[in-house]
Design a protein that fits this description.
Largest sheet: none
Order of helices and strands: HHHHHHHHHHH
CATH architecture of the largest domain: Orthogonal Bundle
Distance between the termini: 44 Å
Shape: elongated
Radius of gyration: 19 Å
Structural class: mainly alpha
CATH class of the largest domain: Mainly Alpha
Number of strands: 0
Number of domains: 2
Number of helices: 11
């Protein structure tokens, strides 16, 4: 089945965003990508703002899929570290989409918090935190609040890496993001040795994936051109 004009416009807009940045997201330019007139944008989305929101929604769907692809084990904290890695990988592989998703490069006002796909992505983090709380390793009555704290930390480190504060060679992951997450879990009640074991286990699982031990999933991490240290 061929994609619909609406789907083609979303795909075209995403390609332009990835290759030229948000400044390229203009009705005329996006429509020209599929050989249509500017009117197509208004017919299918009501204008550029509607198209932008559709592009962001599609990006959040991919983001959610990336989080869901993180390896699962019998240790919820190991799984959370793996999810954090998948989070970072998505942002590094699709920096323009990531910035647009979080309103950092939006040419127009978007209503991201109202998007179900954005909520669903955060819900994955909440569910991962709930699994850790259930083991008794960390304490907290409000898992949404706990997940919000951790997301804020991951988001901050990832943004600093995207703007070039840290080189994209794995050091931000091994020397900053990983240890900071350990510190946060220790502050929430876990023991440092246990948190560090979970981090090491996650690191080994990711190395195995990147080495091709799990071919079905390894492609989702193709953006990392340097090894995890």
């Amino acid at each position: 089945m061929h994609p619909s004009p609406r789907e083609r416009l979303i795909e075209a807009g995403t390609r332009l965003l990835d290759s030229e940045g948000p400044e390229a997201l203009q009705a005329r330019k996006v429509a020209a990508e599929i050989g249509a007139s500017t009117m197509a944008v208004y017919t299918h989305f009501g204008g550029m703002n509607g198209l932008l929101e559709a592009i962001v929604s599609a990006a959040f769907q991919r983001f959610g899929a990336a989080l869901a692809s993180a390896p699962k084990t019998d240790d919820p904290m190991t799984d959370f570290f793996s999810m954090g890695y998948a989070y970072r990988e998505f942002a590094l592989a699709s920096p323009q989409r990531y910035r647009l998703m979080f309103g950092l490069a939006a040419p127009q006002k978007l209503h991201v918090p109202e998007m179900p796909v954005a909520t669903a992505a955060f819900d994955q983090l909440v569910a991962a935190v709930e699994r850790i709380v259930a083991t008794g390793r960390i304490r907290g009555d409000d898992t949404v609040e706990l997940a919000g704290r951790i997301w804020s930390m991951i988001h901050g480190v990832v943004l600093l890496e995207l703007v070039g504060t840290f080189e994209q060679d794995g050091r931000a992951l091994s020397r900053i993001l990983g240890p900071m997450t350990v510190d946060m879990f220790v502050g929430m009640g876990d023991s440092r040795p246990a948190a560090e074991r979970s981090l090491r286990r996650s690191t080994e699982l990711i190395k195995q994936r990147l080495a091709g031990a799990d071919p079905a999933q390894a492609g989702s991490h193709r953006r990392s051109n340097k090894p995890i240290r």
